[in-house]
Design a protein that fits this description.
Length: 445
């Protein structure tokens, strides 16, 4: 049976490749009728939620934040009696607030990216016994990449490449592996005469088509599982660590851990496959990675070259890298058995989603007030797009105004003598604090 689904999402994040692809997958692959509306826009629309069989909250929304889901929309969600599905990521922070929001909104199903064995260690409120948890991934095989012509292994100019952010200390020791693998491999590579392009600097990030070309021109890419080994239940630790690290950039992770992580680092470990693994497999790029489960998609030695965490097997790793036949067998296994298998595609994910929604709607035995015709759906999505674009322009203007005010304050601080400058700045900032709520209401509401 086909159901009509209202999917609320955050339009301001749609430009991010994985977010846009995730949203588009519902339109392309779902057998249900999925109506996608920006949550901020919905607040300005007279929309009867009762006309839908199911409501989905996309992970581009933060369900705990009023700026993402306003009070009026939140109240409509509370009153809605049908199935309510939540997609969520970054589940290592704001856990208690997220759990409270799930309970408050009456969410019935959560698509989680955390490992099955730790789901209830994270969502520990007894009320969560009522919630159906389904496993999903942060990304899937970009099937269009499997069809791209790519350079032969021997013709690729880069031996090993890598890009990653240096994650904050509140992600725990496991999160540090993201940058440690790059730093250690780069340090070892010179002794082997490898040509590497490895960086964790923000200025060296690569996006879009340039990223695809970067991967396709690399013989191999480094990788680790995504995740964290510390869960910030209260949401207070992450901002405290961020502030502390910003003020003390040269402190070691161990110092941050001992000061802030309450002796809980490693108690709960979230470890899942990164979408970059699927990209590398699709582009026939050899993966050199720390051993892990990789959500059951990859097998060490068959789909990637395992690198020990102390890098003690570098000789063996480099031997595979320099042997086109051995490397080629691993590359082809990853390409055929992972990228082209169909098991890790958006289509497979949506098939899973469709099944869950059909079951939940059937269990609810709820009849919507009246069906939406295609013309109404088109009108709703167009109206949402218009309102979301207007909100986005206002938000961009507000950000620019804040940047201008910051530059003015810095200029005054440089130009005026000490006492006068401090007095003027104090008055200016006081006025800004008083005016800011009204400007926000004018610009964003």
């Amino acid at each position: 049976m086909k159901n009509t689904i209202l999917m609320l999402y955050g339009d301001q994040f749609r430009f991010i490749g994985t977010v846009g692809a995730h949203l588009e997958a519902f339109k392309v692959h779902s057998r249900h009728d999925v109506v996608q509306l920006d949550a901020t826009a919905v607040a300005a629309m007279s929309l009867d939620f009762g006309r839908f069989d199911c409501i989905v909250l996309h992970y581009s929304l933060i369900v705990t934040g009023a700026r993402y889901i306003g009070d009026d929309v939140r109240q409509k969600l509370r009153e809605y009696q049908g199935p309510k599905v939540l997609f969520i990521q970054d589940e290592m922070r704001w856990v208690d607030a997220t759990s409270a929001a799930i309970k408050d909104l009456g969410v019935t199903t959560v698509f989680t990216v955390v490992n099955e064995d730790v789901v209830r260690k994270i969502y520990r409120d007894p009320w969560m016994d009522r919630v159906r948890f389904e496993q999903t991934l942060t990304g899937f095989v970009p099937e269009e990449l499997t069809k791209l012509p790519v350079p032969a292994y021997q013709d690729r100019p880069i031996d090993v490449s890598y890009r990653a952010r240096k994650l904050p200390g509140w992600c725990g020791a496991f999160g540090q592996e993201k940058w440690i693998i790059g730093a250690r491999f780069a340090a070892d590579a010179e002794a082997y005469g490898l040509k590497c392009d490895i960086s964790t600097a923000e200025r060296d990030r690569i996006y879009g088509q340039k990223w695809v070309e970067f991967v396709a021109n690399s013989k191999a890419m480094l990788g680790t599982e995504s995740g964290a080994s510390f869960v910030d239940f209260s949401g207070d630790i992450a901002p405290a660590v961020d502030q502390f690290e910003a003020a003390n950039p040269n402190l070691s992770f161990e110092e941050v851990r001992d000061r802030f992580l309450e002796g809980r680092d490693g108690e709960i470990v979230i470890h899942v496959i990164s979408p970059r693994c699927f990209e590398a497999a699709a582009l026939r790029t050899l993966m050199i990675m720390y051993e892990g489960e990789y959500s059951g998609a990859l097998t060490a030695g068959r789909h990637y070259v395992p690198l020990k965490r102390d890098h003690s097997n570098m000789d063996e790793v480099v031997a595979v890298l320099r042997d086109p036949d051995r490397a080629g067998r691993i590359i082809e296994s990853a390409y055929n058995e992972v990228a082209c298998s169909g098991a890790w595609t958006y289509a497979a994910f949506i098939h899973h989603f469709d099944r869950v929604v059909a079951e939940e709607c059937a269990n609810g035995r709820r009849q919507p007030k009246s069906a939406l015709d295609p013309g109404e759906v088109t009108a709703l999505e167009q109206r949402s797009g218009y309102l979301a674009a207007r909100h986005r322009r206002r938000l961009q203007f507000a950000i620019k105004m804040q940047a201008v005010a910051a530059r003015v304050f810095r200029f005054i601080e440089r130009m005026l003598p000490g006492f006068a400058g401090r007095s003027f700045l104090w008055i200016g900032r006081r006025v800004m604090r008083l005016v800011k709520p009204y400007l926000r209401r004018i610009l964003l509401d």
